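User: Can you predict the 3D structure for this chain?
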Amino acid sequence: MAGEWKKERLSALCAEIADCPHSTPLWTDSGALVLRSQNIRNGRLDLGTKSYTDEAHFEQRSRRARLRGGDLVITREAPMGEVCLIPDGLRCCLGQRMVMLRPDPQKCDSRFLLYSIQSRAVQDEIKVNEGTGSTVSNLRIPLLEALPIPHPPLAEQKAIAAVLGALDDKIELNRRMNATLEAMARALFQSWFVDFDPVRAKLDGRKPVGLDDSNAELFPDSFQESAVGLIPKGWTAEAVGDVVDCVGGGTPSTKETKYWEGGTYHWTTPRDFSSLQSPILLETDRKLTEAGIAKVSSGLLPAGTLLLSSRAPVGYLAIAAMPVAINQGFIALKCNERASNFFMLSWCQMHMAEIESRATGTTFAEISKQNFRPIRVVLPPKELMAAFTAKVAPVYAQIHANLHQSRTLASLRDALLPKLLSGEINLGHGVLASMVAK
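Assistant: Here is the predicted structure, written as structure tokens:
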């Protein structure tokens, strides 16, 4: 009955629990894949950044646990309790500070266990170990094995996993779609404003690929010398600070409740950007009152402002989807018709190495507005800038819509998770599952 499911120790639901080798892998440029803590975030395996070792060390690291599809990997520290599911066909081994969990298929569904470990109740149990390490918190194996996991019948586990999995699969599909859309926008910027493909085509007497006649006419058929080398004829190379308004922010006193309590104005720090999967900011962790906004030198910046983190770390980028105030960890670019926010977003992405090279500091790197403003940006005429913006605006509008949908789906998943795991919602008739499938 609902709410009466018993709980079992994690060790009772697993056929095997295997700790990683307590040694640093031999890192190589290619070879066998080694999982690292950075690859496991928010219940997903993220292989955007891959690490490798050679075959001999792969075999050595696989002696305790040879990972296979359906296994779970959980991190022991830095951070504790992040978990992911290993997909079928992926050949990889454990890195440092992680443990393999192999559910017993007669007792526990792998995806159900994945969601159980991510639940607030289990994560709270994991946090009992907070601060137990000498330098960092460490999830000890005995505590891991003793974690209390809800244990409904196997059929119910699979039904719960199917419902939550359908939501997560759609969120992941949106993430992949957004990555593709971003790549399309960057590729267009690269072609038009870095490689100058349409100009080179016209110079060679060819018709520019993928352009209608009206857009093709906006490109010249020759180059000219500039301070940054050859650029298309009629274009300019100017200091970015002369093209867009670059401003900083600040933090009102956190001791003054009148600046924060009941605040309704978005205020952001680079921490809000650490989990962004697309360069659009939809929400902030903290909000300011009108009195608080008055304490930020740049005030409330308009929606569409491009934000570049200037420290801790340098290089986070996002366009604000709403009016927002910023702390001192940003350079905000207030764009215009000469250089749109979409243009400047791609420009910053393409020139990040130069931006980072201008950062200074002994404790942590920081790029000041003074060092950022002189960087040269190559600009086309306003008509061509408008044409580029018109082409990519629908792309970013779709990214924005996908992010909104994913946020709604994540909220639904998070609301359902404790109710499904406790048995408060019964999936016996499959009603909820059919609703999610639609």
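The chain has a mean pLDDT of 93. Residues 105 and 229 are 64 Å apart (CA to CA).
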